[in-house]
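Email to the structure team, subject: Divalent metal cation transporter model.

Hi all, the expression group asked for a predicted structure before they design truncation constructs. Nothing fancy, just the tokens so they can compare against earlier work. One-line instruction: predict Divalent metal cation transporter, return tokens.
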Amino acid sequence: MIAAVAGPGLVAANAGNDAAGIATYASAGSQFTYGTLFFMVLVTVALVMVQEMAVRLGAYTGKGLGALIREQFSLRLTALALTCLLLANTGLVVSEFAGIGAAFELLGVPKYAVIPPAALLLWSLVLFGSYRHAERIFLLMSLVFFAYPVAMILGHPRWGNVGSHLVIPHVEPSKAFILLGVALIGTTVSPYMQFYAAAGVVDRGAKPEDYRLIRADAVLGAVFACAISLTIIIATASAMGGTGPLDSAAQAASALKPVAGQNAELLFAFGLIGASALAGAVVPLSASYAIGEAAGVERSVSRSFRDAPLFLGLFTAQIALGAAIAMTPIDVIKLLIGTQVLQGLISPIVLVYLLILTNRRCVLGPAANTPRYRLAASLVVVGVGAMSTILLVQTVVGWFGLG
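Reply from the structure team: attached below.
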């Protein structure tokens, strides 16, 4: 029974520890040392609640988030939700290919020679049904990042400071801090995760009676993913905290020196390739599935373009656009963090849909949010929305030279 239902929550939550996630967490440590730790504790609570609501919808309705939005909202509001998801996912695909390019540049190979064939390879693996086998290899490669907890310990952080920053709020009234805060939200509570988690539960054929195991998977997955994120921040803070924003992937790799020594860049590159390739196909697929589900059209990688033109066309377009943008002459670290800021700005919109759906008894019946849970979830959505709003206001003010 556990094998039948466990997994979607864990996979969805840990998907944030990809190229852009690693860059964002590492930048938090290099810029603000331990200053974002309490904020990450709050983000962990938010992720737990969001993932639980997503899998509850899947378990009790037998439908994915895309289908439920189509049924419960107007055509315009459905289009808004799916446009936000597609925009956010395309940004993520860009970051995955940028991560692949950055990893190979650490190995001395220019990104222009790597990204196009990598995009073609991932596209072919998915369309010709062999991605599940490659996925296992990519997953094993990405397990390299489990070296961060070891690097954190070997880096001898100031445990007193770590502890105090974990429990005492720390906020800096600067645009840089708000910007990184929104990026941390975007990479941790990524919009596509909710669609993936709900769809994953449905695909496994889970029933309401399986909900307790499904909830445990979602909660433990979220906590585990965020624990790894915290170790990345602490390890980077110990290695280079207070030096300012990261300038390169090589700097991000330096936090692994206590574990790998001179081979830190090689170890980091190996993990970055696996994590980016793993998400590089899964992320665009999640958007294609959600939009195909909402549109009520054929959606399967086993179908041809003639049978599933919208589904496979969206997948192909995301891969092509993501790879093309990743090859532009732009700072890789800024690109990676920027895509997470975009996700952070879009997250509150998607979370509003999730909150409304889980509040409705016509959708979930007795499994709908209780008054207390509804209040707590509303605070999460308002908090995420407030961060995004503050960043938008700061940006607009900056455009007019008033900041």
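The longest helix spans residues 75-106. Confidence is low (pLDDT under 50) at residues 1-6. Ping us if the truncation boundaries need rechecking.
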